[in-house]
Design brief:
The complex is a heterodimer of chains A (about 80) and B (about 230).
Chain A lengths: L1 E8 L6 H12 L12 E6 L6 H12 L5 E8 L5
Antiparallel strand pairs in A: 1-2, 1-3
Chain B lengths: L4 E5 L6 H12 L4 E4 L11 E4 L19 H11 L4 E4 L1 H9 L5 E3 L7 E9 L15 E8 L3 E3 L2 H9 L3 E5 L10 E5 L5 E4 L19 H15 L1
Parallel strand pairs in B: 1-2, 1-3, 3-4, 4-11
Antiparallel strand pairs in B: 5-8, 6-7, 6-9, 9-10, 10-11
The chains are: A alpha+beta (about 80), B alpha/beta (about 230).
């Protein structure tokens, strides 16, 4: 089973990297961007039947630092063979 | 009195030898070297140091993988028993990720790696690391980091200040840290994480801009506090 974890900085946490990228976009002539925030996408292949609780624990204990980051867990349906 | 200390080496640590040399100079015995994959610490340790570097290549987040390594479980247990633990730079990041200290070190606000000697104000003298200093005293100690921007929520920052757990503040703008925090203590004051490198300020140099021995005084503070106890 494929699982996609999206890790994002919490609202209000300063993202200097996003700001630098925003600045660079503007420098390249892309206006109309009001904010850029950068997160992480983690894709995993996990055993069928891995519980929501286990995925949640993976995120809380390692994949995200909940002091500054939120995470979202998305299960990806397998495409029919 | 010789102190029995251990320096932990993670894959990617690069200040472990400097830390060992500093500890040997002050503690009168070479510290034991402990590998991250060990499950147990040597017994009867008086002091544990987590050195600077780039453990696990800073993958995922600085210190995140090291914080989950086998030796860290033993270090958390030792810290709970009251064994003094010092984490410098990457070691500070590991202590935050392990939950021994609150908050997190984020990318410097400037996005730049900062490598220079900074003024450091002593803002707590109640810990064994800082009891040899006077409140408000300014030290000069080098920093060298890309991710030293201390962040915690407002309530945590208020608690740290109220409990005298901010050990050091930068005396000039440095990396964007909340409230200029450069070093943080645990509730019992026996775990210190700091971004500046005291092990790189161990002896006076011919020119003041080239170095100084202010870092050495932190280790000397530890030894006098432990001997007095």
């Amino acid at each position: 089973m494929k699982v996609r974890i999206l890790v994002r900085l919490k609202p209000g946490v300063l993202d200097p990297q996003g700001r630098a990228v925003h600045h660079s976009l503007e420098g390249n002539g892309f206006d109309g961007v009001s904010e850029v925030r950068i997160g992480k996408l983690i894709e995993m292949d996990v055993a069928e039947g891995t519980s929501d609780e286990t995925l949640q624990a993976m995120c809380e204990q390692l994949l995200a630092n909940t002091v500054i980051e939120d995470f979202a867990i998305e299960r990806i349906e397998q495409e029919p063979a | 009195m010789a102190l029995r200390a251990a320096v932990i080496t993670f894959p990617g640590s690069n200040c472990d030898r400097d830390m060992a040399a500093a500890l040997e100079a002050v503690f009168e015995a070479p510290p034991l070297s402990v590998w991250h994959g060990d499950a147990d610490l040597p017994d009867r340790l008086d002091f544990i140091a987590l050195p600077g570097g780039f453990s696990y290549g800073d993958y995922l987040r600085c210190g995140a993988m090291a914080a989950k390594s086998p030796i860290m479980r033993a270090i958390v247990a030792a810290a709970r028993r009251g064994v003094p633990v010092l984490g410098v730079c990457n070691g500070f990041q590991v202590l935050c990720e392990s939950g021994l200290l609150p908050g997190v070190l984020m990318r410097n606000a400037s996005q730049r790696f900062i490598c220079r000697t900074v003024p450091l104000e002593v803002t707590s003298t109640s810990s064994l690391f800082t009891s040899a200093f006077s409140m408000g005293e300014t030290l000069r100690i080098p920093v060298a980091h890309h991710d030293g921007n201390y962040f915690a929520d407002e309530a945590t920052l208020d608690t740290l200040e109220a409990e005298g757990r901010v050990a050091f503040r930068y005396g000039e703008p440095c990396n964007g840290s909340q409230r200029d925090i450069a070093g943080v203590l645990s509730t019992d004051g026996r775990v210190l994480g700091m971004m500046p490198h005291p092990e790189r300020a161990m002896e006076a140099a011919a020119h003041p801009a080239m170095g100084g021995a202010d870092g050495r005084r932190i280790f000397e503070s530890v030894i006098s506090a432990l001997v007095a106890a």
